[in-house]
Amino acid sequence: MGKVAAGIKVMPESPEIDLDDLEEELEQALPEGARINGFERQEVAFGLVALLPTVIVPDESGGTEAVEESFADLDPVESVDVEDVGRL
Q1: Exposed, middle or buried by CB within 10 Å (0-12, 13-18, 19+), for 55?
Q2: Residues 6, 13: Cα–Cα separation, whole Å
Q3: What top-level class would CATH report for the domain 3-87?
Q4: Whole-structure pTM value
Q5: For 4-63, what is each residue's pLDDT tens digit?
Q6: Cα R_g (the chain), whole angstroms
């Protein structure tokens, strides 16, 4: 079975959220079989910075859904959006 790389945009609830801590929380929240292949940061507005992890997941039905749900369940996360998906 193949793998898929997904670019995900994670918006924190406020500019006061420590992004290094949030990166660790996202890594710990990953479902089995998924891994993060790096983070980027994107300035949004008024000091708010989005995290842009690239997540590698198995190419199964549901794709990134489990990852999106696990990220969205974290307290400091306001929203989670998949921005790009491609096969490896």
Answers
A1: buried
A2: 22
A3: alpha beta
A4: 0.92
A5: 999 999 999 999 999 999 999 999 999 999 999 999 999 999 899 999 999 999 887 678
A6: 13
